[in-house]
Design brief:
alpha/beta, TIM Barrel, eight-stranded parallel sheet, 9 helices, 8 strands, globular
Amino acid sequence: MLIDTHAHITSKEFDIDRDEVIRRALDAGVSCIVNPATDLEDSLKAVELAAKHEGVYACVGFHPHDAIKANDKSLEEIEELSKNEKVVAIGEIGLDFHYDFSPRDIQQNVFRAQVEIARRRNLPIVIHTRESITETVGIVEEQIEKSPGWRTLGMNRPAPRGVFHCFTGDLAMANKVINLGFYISFPGMVTFKNAVIAQQVAGAVSIDHLLLETDSPYLAPVPLRGKRNEPANIPLIAAKIAELQHMSVEDIARETTYNAYDLFGIGEQEPRDAA
């Protein structure tokens, strides 16, 4: 079984066939789907959808594109929503200096505020960063310094703090975020011919630190590039990661499913030595 750790199935692109999309994912061997939100309205939809479908889980938060919409009241509502049993993280949060749809200072302030929510709730975070990796990592480091015990489970066992989704950094940056307690994940872009750096990183990083995602409805993998993406396509991404890691698809599925359980507490936990 596979887990799609990042799919926007509450987006309008799925309004016509959302239930069928989820059913196709199950038929393709996808046991769980994590649905990150982009604003308060989308967070409410994500929680509602997760309540309707057993294998669907929600993240709540403001995407950097929508940071301009956030205020004290809406952030309080995000924190309250995060108490729902099907909410597994705060996200999708972070910084995007490519489009700058929200002013950069507001993006940074809202990102900090949401990491603080995650710290209070002892939840992981799902990070979006584009042309802002240095600033994003800086804020994460600042927040960890304020609360070194963030994401500590029973018996003081450290737990992963989150995931840098759709990772586009180089190997040095990948190792840096991994050392901060984060996973990295790659959507269909890792199958693109020109995605040389992403492929290098996906092949060099230990599978212990990788997650699978589609980022649906975006970034459909080859040979579906340019079409609407959906969670049922995760096997194509798993196959590419398997090729880069010189592992079987079955091994990739098992290891990344374990990682998703470790981060989000979803799916069936399987010991790493169970192979």
